[in-house]
Structure formats: structure tokens, C-alpha cells
């Protein structure tokens, strides 16, 4: 049914398509700007469970490859459920009055005032400390001039240094102490702001929430890609005298919540601002706490220069810089103690204010909605980590998702029942630390259950319907985030539809599932399989290949329990060897090893030597027990892949021509990558050693032996990376890449690294360390998926999923 649009300029009416609902356009009569209203009924599918009962738990998730239309309004989903949706006005009419304000006791107000007074004293103390240092320097400059008149020639050098060194060191100290007073916090990029003309329903919705909680309306609404919402003073301290607020909405919240839950989140944020004095005092507390944290932890180019200059200059000059570094370190330690004391004192206040804001949320949306929202936010937080891991995987192949909020929601849908149970335990077992600014989720849920608030807003529609075009806005904010991270070189064409990326990811998951099934959890990069690079040109007849496959499969299943037991011992021996290597590096660098640093007791060189000899002996003893089944596995897989080239078999495989060609590329790549497992293991060992050495660098930066060991191991790591790059450059990356046809070496380390920069070296080493086994397993997984289809054509049932404790690709 078309939508009737009435132009507000010429009052002419005309029809628009349903697909244009919420969009802006031109009146065909007067060319004035119009907004197409929402239709009376649209088809939606809610991405979240309803607010439900107070005891609702995290719902089991399902894997999806396309978003619900409530989130991606222009891309229908096969799982759409048609339900009636009221027009926009009915959402606004869902607010039934206002809520009772949260009462605050006089003692609580006094506590806030005392906390604010204490927090404001901390910056005053900091400035007074700077003034004291300046006074001491001035006193030294005036009172100790006699040092410049002692002796002549060389005899005068030491007194002169004793006079000048404290002045220079003190001047540097004062500079570094003044610097944080004027340094601006790091900005993440300019936020994207909305206006009432573009988003009339959203602004009206926010106004209703503000009216319900008796809070000032925001003068601006910003959006970003965080799983969070916040209300704050728009211009910081300059806005404290008025009610100039800015509301920042994280679009993943909109994508993952319904309108009732979203209204509750907004009520929570504006609940902080419903009491004018408390709002302003708490703002001061948060600002001072954040400033102290920056002073203690934030470093910039000047800090790096001071370290470099102290190490590079002649010791007679560097001693002044080392003295300055010591005093900078000492003052930061003093400030750290003040910061922790401030966090401790203000933590109780902040936690209580969160409880008060929770009451506003529960009284607006209801206690049951509060609990469902809390659990949903925990789920979305976990999904965000998965989404960023997905982005790293997508970026490796030259692609990035065009819609980060939806990717986060998709990850929430993919969390397994086991993962959901872990999140439930996280909620139930969370404890509040003394310095925490938020109380534990379980305590907040328990308090709001006791509140038994019915709520005044119960409309449960997808929150995305509050926006005129949520899909476009979500994409735009995703682009803004990428631009802030990657700079102006990032282009719109670098973004790819999230559905396509999720479908590709689904294929990768299927490959790895097949890998696990086919080898029954025994595939591991520690034991590379030597698969022939090419199929046999004049090999056995198809019937002989089929018999070979069946025999190898049966023998593999018979020997499986013995193999798993032997591999468990092999893996443990490998771990012991790795620990011995790391312990040896620490002892060589003259660093004390504690008994609990490793699972083994490796506190002296003799223990390390014994552990290495034992581990090496066990590896050599167990290895022959693993070879027979590995040979059977290779024989089985090679026979299946060779059978795929038989015309009668290929004719029954979907898209056989493309898949057989792909298997040829994969076999060539697997052969090269598998031949470099030894080099990868050596690199893994080197990275483990460096990790242990670097973990002891703090407080040992003057340990010449440690620094020398790090330099030596960094140099060896560079050589190992270069050797692997040389060998892996002989074969192309076997999967589709968005921008180029890289070699395997270029895929693993796409950017050149600086051989003199430790951070750059470690980044390249980590890329190889993590990417190598994943690529190796993925290639075998794609091959086993084809092999499973061949076995099915031979009448062989697909093997069951192995137990979850089975070994994975790496």
C-alpha cells in the first residue's frame, strides 16, 4: 500500500513507496523538502527477546547470515515474522505519565560535598607540589652560588656540576609536571550529530524520556559505534552553569535493544542529570578522577624523547637526564597514590549514583525490563569483542564490514549456549572492587527486582524504528570510525556488505568444522601432514582408490584412542620444552626465576638442562607412535581428493570444476606451508622467550645483560621471519582476496616492518605466530569438506562431531 505524503509547504498530497518510509525527498509540485512518514503497518522482526519475566536469562543464540529487517530495514531476512506495528505516534503515546524522583538523604548530599571537596584538593596539592619544587630550585640557585667559586680548572668541575645539574634536572621536572595541565585528552574523532529535522521521532522520543524523569532535554544528540550511551555537558565546565547537555547514543545499542529497553537506558543516563546539584558535583568528581589518571599514565613524544636522550648522550650529560627521569618517576608515584586514594573515596559515591540512576531506569521501563537490559548489555559487550576479531579477519583479505553495529548484533546471535552460560556465570559471580565506579550487575539486578517497579513505558518495538534511516546512519558511523582509525587513505570502496562477509565467515566455520570431523579432532600444526602437492596422474584405478580410502578410514578410527593419548603426552612434552627455553633465557639474563613462574621448577641452570633433556627425549620417544595414524590420514584424504578428479565422481559434485581447481591451489599451498612448520615452531619458541624477557623489563631497564639478550633474540626473530617470508613467497594465497593476489608471505605479513623497531618486529612476529596455524587449518578444512562429499558418494556416512576437548588446528 502506498504512503500518502502531504507537503508542509504547498499542502499538496502525493503517494510514495513503502520502501521510502522515513526518507527525505522533494515535493514534485513545489520542490520543497519533505519527509516520508512511517506507514500504518510495516513488517518487522525483533532482534531481541521481549523484556519478559524478571528471571529471564540470556536466550540461546543462532547463527545468522543476514540481519533482521528491524535492523537492516532495506534488506529482508528469510526469518521475517510479520507482526503489526503501530505508527510512530503510538510509540510516543506509550509513555504513561512521569515517574517519582529518587529521594536523596541529607547525609548522602553531605557525603557528595565532602567527596567533591577532597577531589578538588588533589589538583590543588599537585599545583602546590610544583610550586614547592620551584621554590627549592630558586633557593638552590641563590644559596649555593658558592659552588661556582670552589677551586680552579678540573677541581672546579665537580662543584659546578653539583650546582648546575639540580637546576637543569629540576627545570625538566617542572616542565613535565606542567605539561599535563595543558595537554588535551586524545580525541577519537569528530562525533556525528543529528538534528530534529532529520530525526523527528528520535528527538520526540528522547524528549518524552526527559520529561518522564524530570531531566533537561539535550541540546544535541550524537551517535557513534560504541555499545554505550552517555549524557554529559556539551562544553564541559563551561556548560555547568546551565543545562547544555549532549546525548551520545551507541548505534549497537539501538541495533540490539527494543524500544522499551532503549528507553530505560536513556532514563538511566538522564537520571544522573535529574538532580542539578548532584549532577554537577558528580561531574567534577569524574573530571578530576580522569585528569589524575591521565597525569599518572599518559605518555607523549616528550616522554619518549627524554628516555632516548638519556640513553644516547654522553654519561656526563645523561646523568642530569637520568636524575630528571628519577624525579619524574617519583612524582608520578606520589600522584599514583593520590589517584588510588581518590578512586577509593569517590568509588562509593559513583556506585551509589549508579544505583540511583538504575531506579530511574526501572521506574520508567519496569524492573523486568531493567534485568533483561542488563543481561542484553553483557551479551552485546561480549559480542563486540567477537566483532572486532571478525574485522581483523576480514581486513586480512582486504575487506571491512560496512555496518559495525549490525556485525556486533550478528555476533550476539552467534554466541553458543555454552558461551551464554559463561556470561551468566560472569554476571552471577561478578564482585565489586574497592576502586570500581560501577556496582556488580547482579547487585544492580537484585536491587531493581526489590524495587518491583511496573514502569510507565511498555512498548516493545525494535529501537531502530525510531530512526528515519537506521541502515544509512549505521553505515555512515562505521565509515567515520574507520576514517578515524585508518586516516584519509581509507575509502568507501574498502567497505563490503556485512551479509557477504558473514556468509564468507560461515564458509570458514564450515571448513573448520569439517576439519575437526574428518580428523576427529587430531589435526594439529605440531604434527604437519605431508599431503602430496598434486594428484596422481597415472595412479590406481578409481576402484582401488575407493578401497584405499575405506581401509584408511577404518584403520584411522581403530587407532584413534591410542593416537589421542600419545598426542596428549607429546603436547605436554612440547610445553615443557617451551618452558625450559624461556627459563633458560631468563637465567642467562641474570634474572631470578621463582618456583611458581612455570609449571615445572626451573629455578637454576641445572633444573633447566634436566627439563630440556627430558622434554626432548619424550618428544623423540612419542613421535614414532604418532606417525602411523598420520600416514593413514594422509592416505585417506589424498585418495578422496584424487577421486574427485574422476569424471563420474566430479559430475555428482556441485560446482565441481571450480572446487577441483581450488583444491589444486590448496594442495600446492598446503605442501609449501606444511614444509615450514619447523620454522614456525622455532619462531613460536623465540616469541615465547621474548615474551618472558619483556615481562621482566620493567624495573630492569638498566640491566645490560637483559637488554643484550633482548637485542640478540630480536635479531634472531627478524631472521626467522625473513626466512619464513622467503619460503612462503613461493606460493600464492589460495583463497579469494579483495584487492590483490598476495603470496602466503604477503598475506601473513601484509606491511613491511622496521627491523630496528622492537614494536614493529613483535607485531610482524605475532602476525605470523597467529596467522600461520589458522591458515594451515583453514586450507586443510576446505580440502576435507570436498573429501567428505566424495566419501558420501561412496556411501560412507559423515563422521560425528568429536568431543569439544579434542585438539584444534593449532
Can you walk me through this structure?
- The chain has about 800 residues and is mainly alpha-helical.
- It has a four-stranded mixed beta sheet. Strands 1-2 form a two-stranded antiparallel ribbon.
- Helices cover about 60% and strands about 5% of the residues.
- The longest helix has about 50 residues.
- About 5% of the residues have low confidence.
- A hairpin with a 6-residue loop joins strand 3 and strand 4.
- It is built from 23 helices and ten strands.
Strand content: under 5%
Largest sheet: 4 strands, mixed
Strand tally is: 10
Distance between the termini: 56 Å
Please tally the helical runs, counting DSSP H or I stretches of 4 or more residues: 23
Unreliable runs: 38-56, 60-86
**What strand line-up does the widest sheet have?**
5-6-8-7
C-alpha Rg (nearest Å) = 33 Å
The proportion of residues forming helix, as a percent range, comes to 55-70%
Give keywords:
two-stranded antiparallel ribbon
Question: TL;DR of this structure?
Answer:
The chain is 60% helix and 5% strand.
Fold topology:
Blueprint: E1 3-6, E2 13-16, E3 24-26, E4 33-35, H1 88-92, H2 106-143, H3 157-182, E5 192-194, H4 200-213, E6 220-224, E7 229-233, E8 245-250, H5 251-256, H6 259-271, H7 276-297, H8 301-312, H9 315-365, H10 367-396, E9 400-401, H11 404-414, H12 417-429, H13 441-451, H14 470-486, E10 495-496, H15 498-518, H16 542-588, H17 605-643, H18 647-650, H19 656-675, H20 677-695, H21 704-728, H22 744-748, H23 758-793
Parallel strand pairs: 6-8, 9-10
Antiparallel strand pairs: 1-2, 3-4, 5-6, 7-8
Helix pairs in contact: 2-3, 2-7, 2-9, 3-9, 4-6, 6-9, 6-10, 7-9, 8-9, 9-10, 9-13, 10-11, 10-12, 10-13, 15-23, 16-17, 16-20, 17-23, 19-23, 20-21, 20-23, 21-23
Amino acid at each position: 500500500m502506498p504512503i500518502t505524503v502531504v507537503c508542509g509547504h504547498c499542502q499538496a498530497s502525493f503517494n510514495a513507496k513503502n520502501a521510502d518510509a522515513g526518507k527525505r525527498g522533494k515535493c514534485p509540485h513545489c520542490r520543497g523538502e519533505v519527509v516520508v512518514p512511517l506507514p500504518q503497518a510495516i513488517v518487522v522482526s525483533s532482534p531481541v527477546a521481549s523484556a519478559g519475566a524478571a528471571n529471564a536469562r540470556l536466550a540461546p543464540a543462532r547463527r545468522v547470515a543476514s540481519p533482521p529487517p528491524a535492523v537492516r530495514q532495506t534488506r529482508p531476512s528469510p526469518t521475517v515474522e510479520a507482526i503489526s506495528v503501530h505508527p510512530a505516534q503510538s510509540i510516543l503515546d506509550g509513555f504513561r505519565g512521569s515517574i517519582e524522583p529518587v529521594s536523596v538523604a541529607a547525609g548522602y548530599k553531605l557525603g557528595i560535598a565532602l567527596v567533591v571537596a577532597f577531589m578538588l584538593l588533589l589538583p590543588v596539592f599537585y599545583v602546590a607540589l610544583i610550586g614547592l619544587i620551584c621554590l627549592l630550585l630558586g633557593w638552590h640557585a641563590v644559596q649555593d652560588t658558592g659552588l661556582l667559586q670552589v677551586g680552579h680548572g678540573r677541581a672546579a668541575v665537580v662543584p659546578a656540576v653539583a650546582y648546575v645539574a639540580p637546576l637543569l634536572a629540576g627545570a625538566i621536572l617542572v616542565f613535565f609536571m606542567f605539561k599535563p595541565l595543558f595537554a588535551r585528552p586524545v580525541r577519537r574523532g569528530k562525533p556525528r550529530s543529528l538534528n530534529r529535522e532529520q530525526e523527528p521521532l528520535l528527538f520526540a522520543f528522547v524528549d518524552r524520556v526527559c520529561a518522564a524523569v524530570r531531566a533537561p532535554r539535550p541540546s544535541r544528540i550524537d551517535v557513534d559505534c560504541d555499545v554505550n550511551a552517555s549524557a554529559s555537558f556539551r562544553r564541559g565546565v563551561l556548560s555547568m552553569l546551565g543545562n547544555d547537555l549532549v546525548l551520545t547514543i551507541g548505534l549497537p545499542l539501538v541495533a540490539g535493544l527494543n524500544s522499551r529497553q532503549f528507553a530505560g537506558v536513556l532514563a538511566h543516563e538522564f537520571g544522573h542529570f535529574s538532580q542539578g546539584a548532584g549532577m554537577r558535583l558528580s561531574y567534577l568528581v569524574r573530571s578530576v578522577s580522569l585528569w589524575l589518571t591521565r597525569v599518572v599514565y599518559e605518555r607523549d613524544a616528550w616522554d619518549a624523547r627524554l628516555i632516548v636522550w638519556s640513553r644516547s648522550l654522553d654519561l656526563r650529560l645523561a646523568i642530569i637526564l637520568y636524575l630528571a627521569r628519577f624525579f619524574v618517576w617519583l612524582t608520578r608515584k606520589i600522584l599514583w597514590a593520590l589517584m588510588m586514594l581518590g578512586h577509593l573515596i569517590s568509588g562509593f559515591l559513583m556506585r551509589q549514583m549508579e544505583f540511583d540512576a538504575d531506579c530511574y531506569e526501572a521506574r520508567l521501563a519496569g524492573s523486568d525490563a531493567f534485568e533483561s537490559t542488563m543481561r542484553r548489555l553483557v551479551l552485546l559487550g561480549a559480542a563486540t569483542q567477537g566483532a572486532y576479531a571478525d574485522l581483523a579477519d576480514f581486513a586480512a583479505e582486504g575487506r571491512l564490514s560496512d555496518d559495525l553495529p549490525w556485525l556486533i548484533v550478528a555476533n550476539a546471535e552467534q554466541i553458543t549456549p555454552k558461551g551464554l552460560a559463561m556470561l551468566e556465570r560472569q554476571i552471577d559471580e561478578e564482585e565489586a572492587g574497592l576502586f570500581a565506579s560501577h556496582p556488580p550487575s547482579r547487585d544492580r539486578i537484585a536491587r531493581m527486582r526489590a524495587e518491583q517497579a511496573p514502569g510507565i513505558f511498555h512498548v516493545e518495538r525494535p529501537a531502530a524504528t525510531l530512526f528515519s534511516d537506521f541502515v544509512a546512519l549505521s553505515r555512515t558511523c562505521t565509515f567515520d570510525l574507520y576514517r578515524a582509525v585508518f586516516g584519509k587513505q581509507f575509502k568507501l570502496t574498502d567497505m563490503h556488505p556485512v551479509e557477504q562477509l558473514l556468509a564468507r565467515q560461515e564458509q570458514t566455520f564450515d571448513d573448520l568444522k569439517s576439519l575437526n570431523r574428518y580428523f576427529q579432532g587430531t589435526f594439529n600444526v605440531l604434527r604437519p601432514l605431508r599431503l602430496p602437492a598434486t594428484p596422481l596422474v597415472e595412479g590406481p584405478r578409481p576402484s582401488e582408490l575407493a578401497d584405499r580410502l575405506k581401509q584408511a578410514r577404518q584403520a584411522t578410527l581403530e587407532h584413534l584412542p591410542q593416537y589421542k593419548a600419545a598426542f596428549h603426552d607429546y603436547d605436554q612434552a612440547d610445553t615443557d620444552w617451551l618452558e625450559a627455553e624461556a627459563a633458560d633465557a631468563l637465567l642467562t639474563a641474570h634474572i631470578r626465576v621463582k618456583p611458581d613462574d612455570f609449571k615445572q621448577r626451573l629455578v637454576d641452570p641445572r633444573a633447566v638442562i634436566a627439563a630440556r633433556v627430558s622434554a626432548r627425549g619424550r618428544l623423540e620417544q612419542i613421535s614414532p607412535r604418532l606417525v602411523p595414524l598420520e600416514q593413514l590420514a594422509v592416505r585417506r584424504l589424498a585418495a578422496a581428493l584424487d577421486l574427485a578428479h574422476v569424471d563420474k565422481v566430479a559430475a555428482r559434485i556441485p560446482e565441481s570444476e571450480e572446487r577441483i581447481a581450488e583444491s589444486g591451489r590448496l594442495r600446492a599451498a598446503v605442501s609449501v606451508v606444511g614444509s615450514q612448520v619447523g620454522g614456525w615452531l622455532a619462531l613460536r619458541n623465540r616469541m615465547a622467550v621474548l615474551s618472558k624477557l619483556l615481562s621482566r623489563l620493567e624495573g630492569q631497564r638498566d640491566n645490560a645483560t637483559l637488554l643484550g639478550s633482548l637485542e640478540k633474540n630480536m635479531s634472531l626473530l627478524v631472521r626467522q621471519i625473513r626466512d619464513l617470508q622467503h619460503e612462503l613467497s613461493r606460493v600464492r594465497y589460495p583463497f579469494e582476496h579483495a584487492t590483490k593476489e598476495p603470496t602466503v608471505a604477503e598475506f601473513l605479513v601484509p606491511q613491511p616492518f622496521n627491523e630496528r623497531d622492537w614494536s614493529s618486529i613483535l607485531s610482524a612476529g605475532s602476525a605470523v605466530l597467529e596467522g600461520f596455524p589458522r591458515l594451515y587449518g583453514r586450507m586443510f578444512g576446505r580440502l576435507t569438506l570436498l573429501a567428505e562429499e566424495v566419501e558420501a558418494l561412496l556411501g560412507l556416512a559423515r563422521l560425528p562431531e568429536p568431543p569439544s576437548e579434542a585438539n584444534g588446528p593449532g
